[in-house]
Structure formats: C-alpha cells, structure tokens
Amino acid sequence: MRVIYWALPITAALAYGIWHHYAALVYVGDLPPFDLHFYGFEDGRAYLAGLSPAAKATYLGPLHQADTVLLLALAATLMLPVWRRRWLWCAPALAYAGFDLLENGAVSGLLVQGISEPGEIYTVAMLTGCKFLALGLAVILALWGLWRLRPAAR
Predict the structure, then answer these.
(1) How many Å apart are CA 117 and CA 126, to the nearest integer?
(2) CA-CA distance, 77 to 5, in Å (whole number)?
(3) What backbone phi and psi angles, to 5 degrees, belong to 59?
(4) If DSSP codes are grouped into helix, strand and coil, which group holds residue 31?
(5) Looking at the whole model, is its pTM more than 0.70?
(6) Helix, strand or coil, per DSSP, at residue 116
(7) In 10 A of CB 49, how many CB atoms?
(8) I need a surface site. Which of 33, 89, 93, 136 has the fewest CB within 10 A?
(9) What tens digit of pLDDT does each residue of 24-57 get?
C-alpha cells in the first residue's frame, strides 16, 4: 500500500510535466488551451481559427493522452487520504475526473468538426468550470484527510 501512496502522486506529477510541455505548444498568441480558460464564443472561435494543423494534432494526440493520465492519477491521488471513509468522500475527485473527460471529448469535437453553434463553446466553458470546482473540493477534502491521518490525530 505504501508504494501506491508514493507512485500515484509521482505519476500525477510526471504526467503534469508532460501535459505542461504539450500545452505550451498549443497556445495561440496569448490564448491558452481550452483546459485552462473559460472561453466565450468570439475568443473560442479565434482560438480555434489560430490553431495550426500541427497544433491541432498535438492537442488531439499527446496533449489529450497526457491529460487523461494526469486526471486519472490526480483523481486517484486525491482519493487516497479519504478512501477509507464512505465513498461519498471520493465523489469530488471522481466528479473532477468525469468533468475533465467530458471536457476533453467536447474539445476534441470542436477541434475535429469546428464550431457549429455558440453553445458548444459554452458547454466546454461550463465543463471547465465544473472540473475546477470539483478539483478544488477534492483538494480540500484530501488535505483534510491528510490532516486527520497525522500521528497527533490518532
């Protein structure tokens, strides 16, 4: 069990490093990737129009692969301090992973098919917001769980 407590955070950190490398390749001027920004319709359209074919391929390939490994490893890491409690304590970390996967699917659709209606950009923005909200709650619960696991709490 001790190996898991070290392997998951290390995997998440390595995946973040790889993700960050590829995310830097898909900036369009000052516009970050969809994963990091709440886009309105005009900014989202400008971002998509500014992506080169190589950047789209990077976004759809290595960036999304690294993001998937990152979200799974991070969600599992955030569940470690609270998993012995009821499953409800793990729900925010699971919700984070779910929202991030849905966001990735919606972004893939935009990159492959383009924008057919403004609601698609707003859907991605909503999923991004829900992802960060769930992540924040999962981090708070994980920190609380770590605080409860300290030797003085026993």
Answers:
(1) 15
(2) 8
(3) -60, -45
(4) strand
(5) yes
(6) coil
(7) 10
(8) 136
(9) 999 999 999 998 888 888 889 999 999 999 999 9
